[in-house]
Amino acid sequence: MTELVTSAVGGRIVECNDEFFAEAANLLSSDPPVWKEGEYTDHGKWMDGWETRRRREAGHDWCVIGLGIPGQVEKVTIDTAFFTGNYPEEFSLEACGVGSDDLLEAAEWIELVSKSPLQGDSIAEFAVGNDHRVTHLRLNIFPDGGVARLRVEGAPVPSIHEVCPESGSVDLASLVVGGEALEASDAHYSPPSNMLRPTTPKGMWDGWETKRRRDSGHDWATFRLGMAGVVEEFVVDTRHFKGNSPGWVSVHVAGPDEVWHEVLTRAPIEADSVNRLPLDEPVEAALVRLDIHPDGGVARFHVLGRAHSEAAADRRVDYLNALFDQPATHFFKAACSSSKWVEAMRESRPFNSVAEVLGAAERSFDLLEEADWLEAFAGHPRIGETGDPVANKEQSAMGEAEFETLEALVDANARYEDEFGFTYIVFATGKNAVEMLSIANSRLGNSRDQEVANAAGEQRLITRTRLRRMLCQNGLE
Description:
Blueprint: E1 2-3, E2 12-16, E3 40-41, E4 44-45, E5 50-51, E6 61-79, E7 90-96, E8 110-117, E9 123-127, E10 134-142, E11 146-147, E12 149-156, E13 170-171, E14 180-184, E15 208-209, E16 219-237, E17 248-254, E18 260-268, E19 274-293, E20 297-298, E21 300-307, H1 309-322, H2 325-333, H3 339-348, H4 354-365, H5 370-378, H6 389-394, H7 403-420, H8 433-443, H9 448-470
Antiparallel strand pairs: 1-12, 2-6, 3-4, 5-11, 6-9, 6-10, 6-12, 7-8, 7-10, 13-21, 14-16, 15-20, 16-19, 16-21, 17-18, 17-19
Helix pairs in contact: 2-3, 3-4, 4-9, 5-9, 7-8
C-alpha cells in the first residue's frame, strides 16, 4: 500500500476548528512522534501531534485534511503516542472526493471509520473497505484532546494530467500513478521508495541513501512503473546530497518479460543538483533499475515519458469507477449535458474497459426522449462562440476563419434556432468554418423531426470523442 496523506507526499491541513496546544500539521509528519521532557510553550506542554483545548461546551473537534496522493483508502492508523491524560475518548473519519479545496463547501461526506474508542499512548489500526477515490478527509475527535499521527494507506488513483497531459511527458515511476520500489542492494539510511515521492525533497532524510561501500561493487534499486510506457528521459535529483552523492549512474529497463537491457551507461552526475539525462532514442519499459556508482544518496528519481495507450486507459477507467457520485456526475456532464444520460452512465459503473464505457454511452443514449436530447443540445455553445474550453478545442479551426465566414455562421446559428428551437450543433473536430457553415445551411431545409435526429447523431459523435479523450484514447475510430 502507498502512504497517501503524510506531508512527505504532499498531504496538508486544510482547516481545523482548534489547535490551541499543538498544530494539526504535526498529524501528517512522516517521522515517529517524540517526547521532549520539560519543554513548554506559551500555551502549555509541547506535544508532537495535534492537540485542542479542553472543551467546556457541547460538540467535538475536527480537522479537514487534503490527501497528497488521492486514492482508495485501505488502512487507517491512529497514533496517540505520549498522549496519556489528554487523548480523545473516540474518533471517526469521513471522506469526500471533490478534488479541489474550493469545492469542499458543497462536498458530500461519507464515513470511512465509524465512531471508535481510542486508548492513550497507543496505536490503533482500522481496515477500510471503500473503493471511492478520496481527495479529502475529516478527522473528528470526541470530545477533544490530542492525536500524535494519522496514517492513511491505499491505492493511488491519479487524475488525467498525471496520466496523459495535453503536452509534455509524465513521471511513469511516481507514487501518484502507482510506481513502487521493488528491491535495493542497500537501504541503510533510508528506503528507495522515497525517491518516487511527488514532493520537493526537504533534506538528506527525504531520499534514498546507502552505506559507504568498501569493495569494488555498486548499489542499485529496481522499480515497477505505475504505467508501462515509452521512456524519453531520466531525472536523478541529488539535492541535499553534497559530499555523499553518487559519482555516476546507469539505468537498465525491462518489459513485462523482465529481460533487462542497459539504456544509460555510467553517466556522470553532479552533487546537490537536478541531473536531467535524456535518451538518444525512446525505449519501452515496465521495470527500471537505477545503478549508482559506487554508492551514496539520491533524493528523487523520475522516469519521464508517455504511458502506453492500454496502461493509460486502465488508469482512467479505474479513476472513473472510483469517483463518488458527485464528481462522477461532473465527469459525465462534461461529455453530455443530458441529466438522464448522466444518471444512466453513473449507474452503469463499474466498467472493465474503454470499450465498455463507450458501449454504455450508446445504450444510455437509446433511453433518451426529445426533452432529454434538447437538454443535451443546450449544453453546447453556438458554433463560433468562445468561452467553453472544450468546445474551443473541438472548434480549433475557427481561429483560421475569415471574418465574412464567421459573420455568416452567426447568421446561420440564429436562423437555425428560429427554425428549430434549439442550438445548431455539429461534430466540429477536423472541420473548418466553411464546412460547418455549409452543413448548417444544408440542414436548414430539414423538418424539425429530421433535425432532432441529425443533432442527436452529432451529439453521439461528440460525446464518444470526448469520452475517448477523457479516457486518454485520443485517436478517432
